[in-house]
Amino acid sequence: MATRALVTGGCGFIGSNFVRHLLREEPDVLVTNLDLLTYAGNLHNLEDLVDSPRYRFVQGDVRDPSLAAELVTDADWVVNFAAESHVDRSLGEKAGAFVDTNVYGVWCLLEALRVADRGARFLQVGTDEVYGSLPSGGASESTLPVPSSPYAASKAGADQLALAFWRTHGCDVIVSRCTNNYGPYQYPEKLVPLFITNALDGEPLPLYDGGGQVRDWLRVEDHCRALLLLLRQGSSGEIYNVGACQDPEWTNRALTELILRCTGASEDLIQPVAGLRPGHDERYAVDTTKIRGLGWTPERPLEQGVADTVTWYAEHRDWWEPLKSGEYRAFYEQHYGAALRARR
Questions:
Q1: pLDDT tens digits, residue range 174-191?
Q2: Helix (H, G, I), strand (E, B) or coil at 120
Q3: Is 137 helix (H, G, I), strand (E, B) or coil?
């Protein structure tokens, strides 16, 4: 019998990569992709699947209880990627939208599952940003969340809400918390695609505070492998950290220099920007012992993964060039324009 999977936010970066991975690795799976198609949701990410009998797209909102109830009726797996996901966009007046989508939207899905009462597995795809900045060591799944931004706080709330449905209603819930992803189809406001596409066009790379911030970078395909493993083998009511755990760790400056080497661009493009942005942490790190105990390990080292990502963006200008206009340009000007002009 076919497994029926409802993937929310499947037209986004990680979601679209996961839909492809799921269809490739699960020959009998039938996927329904629910996506509102906000600025980062892109139908082109999965345009080659539109004629597949195993794939269905539904444009809609996870905050719509009636639609959630309809779509979970025959689902065996529900994988929730639907979220507002950028720290900068969560600041100021837009913070409420993050709470609305990231928390209330999760409630709508969970409540629909509770009412349907058919034992579907719910995977809440979270972020390591809920742990806040760590001076040393790696956060374990039992580390108390200390989110710094409204974005991270909303994701922490979503995690707790999902686990509450497991405790109170016995819903089959798993929470994953992953480190920074990179790879194909990532909207160009995030560091890796922003710096790659700017370098390819000879534009400045706005690097905050010398780039000393530490991040753990995981190629998106490795993340997708981890998520499918959790659907298959994860324990209900558990949290699983997912990350590459690079040793030695990589600063944003070192990653920027790697991107420049891979693109063949000059380090002169680096434009230092003073003043760490509100809500941004100095260092993220997680302990991934738990998921590695299930047999998962990342397969692609960072140097190769970034080189492959540069190649993808270089060969897919038709995908990202239209995105770097309109709303994106307004966002870019708001967050980087004044600082870059001040450096000239």
A1: 999 999 999 999 999 999
A2: coil
A3: coil
Beta-strand runs (E) in the chain: 4-8, 30-35, 55-59, 77-80, 121-127, 172-178, 180-182, 205-208, 214-215, 217-219, 238-242, 250-251, 270-273
Torsion angle, alpha carbons of 7, 11, 13, 16, to 10: 60
Structure tokens at 53: 């009998």
User: What is this structure's pTM?
Assistant: 0.95
The H or E element spanning position 70 is helix 65-72
Backbone phi and psi for residue 52, each to the nearest 5 degrees, phi listed first:
-75, 130
Nearest to 295 by CA among 233, 253, 219, 231: 233
Residues 214-238 have pLDDT tens digits of 999 999 999 999 999 999 999 999 9
Read off the pLDDT of residues 111-161 as tens digits, 9 standing for 90 and up: 999 999 999 999 999 999 999 999 999 999 999 999 998 899 999 999 999
| Catalytic positions, written as ranges | 128-129, 151
323 Cβ neighbours under 8 A, 6+ residues apart: 42, 187, 188
Cβ within 8 Å of residue 290, ≥6 positions away: 140, 141, 238, 240, 241
